[in-house]
Amino acid sequence: MNVAIIGAGNVGWHLAQALQAAGHTVTGVYSRTAPPREELAAQLKSAQPLSSLGLQSINADVVLVAVPDAAIAAVAAALRVQPGTVVAHTSGSQPLSILAAVQDAQTGVFYPLQTFSKAKPVAFKQVPILLEATDQAALQRLQELATSISHTVEVVPSGARKHLHLSAVFACNFTNHLLGISRQLLQEANLPQHLLQPLIQETIAKAMQHDPYTVQTGPAIRRDQNVIEEHLHMLQQHPRLQKLYRLLTQSIQAAPEGR
Amino acid sequence: MNVAIIGAGNVGWHLAQALQAAGHTVTGVYSRTAPPREELAAQLKSAQPLSSLGLQSINADVVLVAVPDAAIAAVAAALRVQPGTVVAHTSGSQPLSILAAVQDAQTGVFYPLQTFSKAKPVAFKQVPILLEATDQAALQRLQELATSISHTVEVVPSGARKHLHLSAVFACNFTNHLLGISRQLLQEANLPQHLLQPLIQETIAKAMQHDPYTVQTGPAIRRDQNVIEEHLHMLQQHPRLQKLYRLLTQSIQAAPEGR
């Protein structure tokens, strides 16, 4: 397929590489400023760097909009494409309807569920791609594109995608914060960071293989009040962490499948 | 070395196998009830199953006490060993002093920092072992034993070990709970569990390579109040999770190195 990409940030960058590696042709790359589009286009075989959202002269079966959430609506309003193109955004948290203003095209969502940074290569085959589209023909075209670069392609409508995002906030954003707290506490006690890494890795591996509620360990689930009180005492210089410790302990003890 | 092991649970089981594989001789295995000690002794080349804590006739350079925390003090009081033996417990949360009652022996701590289950093999070389002892000679003997089965051996006194444990509660016990919440939310939205796994794995990998505070992502750190309000609304049937969401969001925004 011929694909044009709007946005030359982390997502656009990795998508362009993965699509070309799968045999597709990236025909154009747009970004607001020149350096990113020039740099990305130079990495690709036959992509034109585009300085305008008027893409009427660009061959594209699919246009992927990989810009920050806050910029999607403005791109949708300004974009011009050849009739019959499918325009899809790549955001996990924005509804399909945010593309309603796009003219002469079917619209969809093409959301790669992963965190990207330019410096780090991505095994795209392992990245789930979640799709949605306004009609069946557009959905089929996105499915064909998605399955050519990923093993895991699912149709997930906007409503369910919001729940997925909420779930990811707990599993990823909040988890990262707890790992940050843990690292801070190690630092304050002059303990080397690497000591906990095997335990963290094993904990995550176990949580992936089981329902985490059923493999919960630690003082909260054991209701070991001596250790809990001692930990709260050790955190007395950190009232914010004390509050978190207390609430997470209560939550573990109240969880539906807590033993 | 000759090693006797008190306790035939998960820790005793894996320690015995790792020590034998490293060329040591496990000479005796004690447990309160017969089946575990018989089963473990049968797996080992030359271990006697022991039904009493009188080990005066058992050759042991080191006796490792791998029983639940609450049972260590009672074992220490009842244990009898040959003079010159080093007796070490394997607990992360108990001080060295809990072995003060042991007669005719130097005492220590030999703490493998990992979560064990019998069914799952352990790459012991990757498991950090934290040591402490009442005197230098005993410490040296424990160091020799530990370095023969693990690449990572550190001397960590009881006070620092408590901080390590607190840090592990945040990094492992609390993290596991958040992964449980995430799974519950996916289930309630009828979304497949596997969709989030690549994102979780990448999040953890990133948190290991950086200070997690500096790679924090998500609505909290972006101060994206629209998304935060929407998530709180979606959690209205779960007041406990709403409270956790709010407090974790505040904590991310207040963290010392939050951007």
Describe this protein's structure:
The structure is a homodimer of 259-residue chains. By secondary structure, chain A is α/β, with parallel strands linked by helices. The first copy, chain A, folds into two domains: 2-156, Rossmann fold (3-Layer(aba) Sandwich), CATH 3.40.50; 161-254, ProC-like, C-terminal domain (N-(1-d-carboxylethyl)-l-norvaline Dehydrogenase, domain 2), CATH 1.10.1040. Chain A contains nine helices and eight strands. Chain A has an eight-stranded mixed β-sheet with strand order 3-2-1-4-5-6-7-8, covered by helices on one side. In chain A, helix 1 links the parallel strand 1 and strand 2 (25-30). The longest helix of chain A has 31 residues, at 158-188. Chains A and B meet through helix 5, helix 6, helix 7, helix 8 and helix 9 of A and helix 5, helix 6, helix 7, helix 8 and helix 9 of B.
Concise structural overview:
By secondary structure, chain A is of the alpha/beta class. Chain A contains nine helices and eight strands.
SSE topology sketch:
The structure is a homodimer of 259-residue chains.
Chain A: E1 2-6, H1 10-21, E2 25-30, H2 34-43, E3 48-50, E4 62-65, H3 72-78, E5 86-89, E6 106-112, E7 129-133, H4 136-149, E8 153-155, H5 158-188, H6 197-209, H7 219-222, H8 225-234, H9 239-254
